[in-house]
Known about the structure:
The complex is a heterotetramer, with 2 copies of chain A and 2 copies of chain C. By secondary structure, chain A is mostly helical. Chain A has helices at residues 6-22, 24-34, 39-56, 62-76, 79-95, 104-122, 132-147, 152-169, 193-208, and strands at residues 3-5, 101-103. Chain A has a single domain (3-208), classed as Serine Threonine Protein Phosphatase 5, Tetratricopeptide repeat (Alpha Horseshoe). Chain A is built from 9 helices and 2 strands; from the N terminus they run βαααααβαααα. By secondary structure, chain C is α/β, with parallel strands linked by helices. In chain C, helix 6 (232-246) packs across helix 7. The structure holds adenosine-5'-diphosphate (ADP) (2 copies) and magnesium ion (MG) (4 copies).
Amino acid sequence: MKTLNISDIKSVLKITADTVLENEKHFCDLDAVIGDGDFGMTLAKGFRVIKVELEKFEADDIGGLMKSIGMTMLETCGGATGSLWGAGFRAMGKSAKGKSEAELTDISEMTASFIGGMQKVGGAVLGDKTLLDALIPASESMAKDADAGLDIAEAMKNAGAAATMGADNTKQLIAKKGRATYLGDRSLGYPDAGAEAISVLFKAVNDKFFC
Amino acid sequence: MKTLNISDIKSVLKITADTVLENEKHFCDLDAVIGDGDFGMTLAKGFRVIKVELEKFEADDIGGLMKSIGMTMLETCGGATGSLWGAGFRAMGKSAKGKSEAELTDISEMTASFIGGMQKVGGAVLGDKTLLDALIPASESMAKDADAGLDIAEAMKNAGAAATMGADNTKQLIAKKGRATYLGDRSLGYPDAGAEAISVLFKAVNDKFFC
Amino acid sequence: MKKIINTPESVVDDMCKGFLLAHKDYVGLDEKYRVIHRKEINTKKVNLISGGGSGHEPSHAGFVGRGMLDGAVCGDVFASPSVMQIYNAITKLESDKGVLLIVKNYSGDVMNFDGAADMAEEDDDIHVEKVYVNDDVAVTDSLYTVGRRGVAGTVFVHKIAGAKAETGADLKAVKAVAEKVIANVRTMGFALTSCTVPAKGGPTFDIKDGDMEFGVGIHGEPGVSREKTVGAAALAERAVGRIFEDMPVQKGSDVAVLLNGLGGTPLQELYILYNEVCKILDKAGINVYFNMVGNYMTALDMAGASVSILKLDDELKALLEAEADTPALKM
Amino acid sequence: MKKIINTPESVVDDMCKGFLLAHKDYVGLDEKYRVIHRKEINTKKVNLISGGGSGHEPSHAGFVGRGMLDGAVCGDVFASPSVMQIYNAITKLESDKGVLLIVKNYSGDVMNFDGAADMAEEDDDIHVEKVYVNDDVAVTDSLYTVGRRGVAGTVFVHKIAGAKAETGADLKAVKAVAEKVIANVRTMGFALTSCTVPAKGGPTFDIKDGDMEFGVGIHGEPGVSREKTVGAAALAERAVGRIFEDMPVQKGSDVAVLLNGLGGTPLQELYILYNEVCKILDKAGINVYFNMVGNYMTALDMAGASVSILKLDDELKALLEAEADTPALKM
Ligand SMILES: Nc1ncnc2c1ncn2[C@@H]1O[C@H](COP(=O)(O)OP(=O)(O)O)[C@@H](O)[C@H]1O
Ligand SMILES: Nc1ncnc2c1ncn2[C@@H]1O[C@H](COP(=O)(O)OP(=O)(O)O)[C@@H](O)[C@H]1O
Ligand SMILES: [Mg+2]
Ligand SMILES: [Mg+2]
Ligand SMILES: [Mg+2]
Ligand SMILES: [Mg+2]
């Protein structure tokens, strides 16, 4: 697989949305340990609307779709998630503006934009025990694989593995952003909910779409 | 044993007080089932003061002692217990006014006065699922034994047995006085805390004094 | 036991002291007899005394102030104050116009307030009248001889009789309006958890997760029946339904509603329940003229609530809306 | 889960509706964006907007009214409201004098309030300023980059900045006094139980009977350390001690104390704790000029409390004592 068209992107987003909804409780439970237990709910609230939106979205414009999803997140989701994912999707929208197809390089750039958007509002860096600790390794893996000219499915598999490793790694980190910071070093030993979610979402998309 | 003098009476009251204090939690637990769980505490609060009072009381006057205890109950104890036991002891005080010794007839009359005092303020009769359901049979047994000229120790044993039977019986009654009334027929199957206490107190006095 | 206390024995004394410190502009405290009274005692108006067991905070001390009570007697947790405590409150608040005791209808309270009133009348020639609040419709009156309990509706009695006394009305008139409130107020409560009495150290009753007690009072006693928990709408329906069964309210009537939390239930849930109660009243064509939503007559940390409905006429409306300035209610 | 609700999803909407019904003399409600605002919006004064996750009732909507807030945005339980909700609150409460956002310092709130402010400034040319309340001394500031949490001390910011805005002061002055409060208020809290978020259905953390969490916030998150429970006196000592460590208070100073319940703790215990706090302050020669004891910034049904101390100067005193007329605070 060398390119994704708008309907592929929609399928990936649909799988993402379904996975978020299936994992609503699981993501909440993860957040409850060192956060406040609402992460799954907040995310699900957004993706419930996004699922409907996906079906209604007509234009053949990947960037437009991403921007629209970003606005939905800002409208629907509160919490850190609303601003972060809203900014992430909006940044992806900018990066893919007007595109009707995406190659691995584009996808890799979109992912980098997603991260950049989140960093702009949230100010987190690698190692702060946030979802970026899963996303950044995944994004780096994609960039490398894009340079190497790998197939998208292949690259996604590698990115997923990197995300999972990154998420696992968060257990050994002390939180520097988000609510878990209030726990001080008591956040040690538990993974970050957001990072775990990224890993779960990569896995679902890989199992169901890039298989 | 044919008469009790003031020091015997004090010993009996001392045993009563100790028993109340030992059973504070037990009496509360009994009250918790169909009442509000404070009976033991309230009674103990009074008898803690009475224990000190017993040692300070100088006059050779059984009635005076009882009256004084009654006032202590009114001062110290709230709840139904304060008024009821206060009135009971004050009525006993009236019945034994000026006496330095008590025969079984006197004791029987004092018990009847105790009941009368409680009824005057509380208005309960036999079968209302109150401590009177233990006290009234005990008092009747004493009256009968006094007529028959029994020894005090003997009569107390009979009275104690009657109290215990009476207390047991309260399990089969629906409360008509006190808090347990609010439960309706859900008070069935559980004994009244006050009646149980009377039975426990008789047993203690019999085991430790009239043995 | 999960409580912020020093020792179970010192709970009420410590609380009274803290209350005094928090509200010293409003009240004074007789530490020995645990009487909380207005800072300035007015001997030219009917003075209102209430009280009962502690554990119902802000009742009753929280309502001591202009337009409501003159004194509150604090018993041990859930135990009526002693005769002597009440007697000392009466003598302290003696007034030319007499004293009204507002008593919640529990055996212990009734016996102790009655005994104290007798003593004050006999020994001190104080004119004392009493009213017994019995607004709880959980238990059907006729079945038992002690009558109904007094619960959250008591707060309406404090408010309205207090406003009346403030007008300079005489004892007879203040008592009459208190009795009018009592005749027109009904309350139904339910609990999701037990409460924990400090001296006991554990819950008064055990209850499973999906269960609730319907028809509870305010002393942690179990309710009239144990049932499966239901949603806020169904709870409102049942509580209001039971009240209407006992006291029909005509379409077009004006009522006051007190949505009272029992102590452990967050305000959030009280608003949710109030929303459902309003829906039902609205459907029945009944107008909520006045409302209070919050913790007014609690049962320590019990999770649960009660709904009180008071039928209003012009006199009650005016008194209900009259100024009040107390620690727990300002209007 | 022991809650009086309809469904976990409808909790905030139902609560907003109930709140509106209970306080319709004070407020209006934008149902879609869950903005509770003053009934009459004044466009000639600086308008104050606060808000955050729900579950802190009476915060923040309870403080909407004369002398305090102009609007409160209600997020989901414990989740900051969305950018769009806040943006809509700002445009609704647009004023000639500008809008001040009072934000509790949580990543989510900060990001969303900031995003909404940017939007309102860019799209609608509304002059928006922000203050971030970070009174919680549980977590030492320097260790982490997000800074301290905003907790109960926020209520003092509402009260004082609200009073200032009512005088007709300009945005700069109102913001300055809000920042003065923030610089002078510290809070320390602890919990005896977890709370239960409706959507989760069970407690956020497990805790044994003899244990407590010291240094908790207001979102049911565990505290800084788990410890054995201690008595009220020791709790007060530790809480006040931690505050003094962070913000020394001179002998002879005047302070305001907020003894705040977290939702599941009865008022009785708050008074007991307040009594102990007063003893400590008294011993340190510090004068409690003003106090509030009650549930002001809660965490659903969490059992626990927090102690806030605000150092006062003449300006703060006058504003603290100024009139306020809101559902949850009247003075
Ligand atoms: N500043 C930040 N930058 C990036 N990710 C963050 C940041 N703060 C929090 N997160 C992520 O968000 C997740 C929590 O989201 P959510 O539960 O919605 O936030 P909250 O309840 O704290 O408002 C965390 O697990 C973390 O991965
Ligand atoms: N009217 C009454 N007459 C006689 N005994 C009563 C009456 N009411 C209650 N009691 C007794 O008092 C006991 C409860 O006492 P206590 O716990 O002090 O009362 P409460 O907590 O209801 O004020 C009951 O178990 C019962 O035996
Ligand atoms: Mg969260
Ligand atoms: Mg009892
Ligand atoms: Mg009692
Ligand atoms: Mg949150």
